[in-house]
Each structure stands twice: as structure tokens, then as C-alpha cells.
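sorry for the late reply, my laptop died twice this morning and i had to redo everyting from scratch. anyway the thing you sent over, i finally got around to it. pasting the sequence first so we're on the same page, its 94 residues, then the predicted structure underneath. double check i copied it right bc i was rushing
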Amino acid sequence: MTDTMKKHTPGPWRVIRQNDIPTAVMAPHPDLGGYGVCLIVVGPEMEANARLIAAAPALVEALQEAQAALRSERNLVGLHSQIDAALAFVEARP
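ok and here's the structure:
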């Protein structure tokens, strides 16, 4: 994997809605308030797709933590809550 493929726009990302329909995923920007990461195409899976895309930074972070924990065999209790929070966002759970 090249260095450019390893980098992504920092999170947290959020789903933007118009008339309660997910239309885009935005990332934070210190001067602009936010900027678009992607537009959501209309279709039956658009809500799930928007949530999955918006959760990408948190999922990457959780996987990196899991990888480090497994390599060092450290306690995985705190990691469980981080993974659960990322998956809850993707699955639209409270």
C-alpha cells in the first residue's frame, strides 16, 4: 500500500440530511465548518451506506487498536467498547 493510500480525511465524519434523506458525508474543517467526503446515491441502501461511510475513521481506528492489542496481548476490555461504539453507529443502534 502506498503512503497516499494510507491517509484519509480525519474524522469524525457525519451524515448530512436534506428533508430527512441522507445526501452526503462531511468531514470537519477548522475554517469552513466542514467539507464533503462523498455524495450519497439514491437507492434502497442509502441510509446504511451513509452511516458506514461516516463511520470509516472510527472503524479504522478500532481496527488499528485491535491489531496493536493482539500483537502485544494486552487487556482487550477497553477495546471492546471502542469497537462496539463504532459498530453501533454503523448499525444505527443507540
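Helices lie at 3-6, 46-72, 77-90.
thats about all i looked at so far, will dig more tmrw
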